[in-house]
Amino acid sequence: MLHSFRRFATISVAVISAVVAPALVAAAPAAHAAAGLTNCVDLTRVAACYELVWVDGVQFRMTFPQAANPMPAIPTAKVQNFYVIAPQTGTPQGAVPGFNHDHVIAASPTHSAGGFTVFMHGYFVVCSAPGIASGACAPILSTIPGDGTIPLAQTVNGQALTSTSAIEAGAGSGALLLIDTGAEFIGTLSPR
Known about the structure:
Layout: H1 2-19, H2 30-35, E1 38-39, E2 49-55, E3 58-64, E4 80-85, E5 102-104, E6 119-127, H3 129-134, E7 137-144, E8 148-156, E9 159-160, H4 164-173, E10 176-186, E11 188-191
Parallel strand pairs: 1-2, 4-6
Antiparallel strand pairs: 2-3, 3-11, 4-5, 6-10, 7-8, 8-9
């Protein structure tokens, strides 16, 4: 199983790199930039796009300045985790490259604590074997092209995973595993 997760993490880096791992570019303000953008789900070529993300149970629009090149490393700056989870509603936030998923980050620009940063580091959130066995974690089996099926986490102890606190508590209890994709990228936020 560890080999499968390593392989999954390797493929995950490639997936995020090809889909949402943009190069550092000068971007217009998020609200202006997102106005004429295509949803990443509908993208037919490599270009700037947007997808929705959860921040403390609220959906925001995240713009990815797209160049199909991952950042080699995040500069010396604050980085926030970008979690990929099973869909939380009947409409997934993402379906690229063929598996339905949602996204969660910790902070938006409106958070008074100043926790928002445009620099993201990608993690897949999957149910652990003990989490599944105990019933604490409800997975959605998701097929990753070329790698098989994985248990993408949808809930922990009946709680939706639309906040980083829920995800990190589930990981702390052992019900969830956070798979580091190694992908680093930029995403700006604007209200939905």
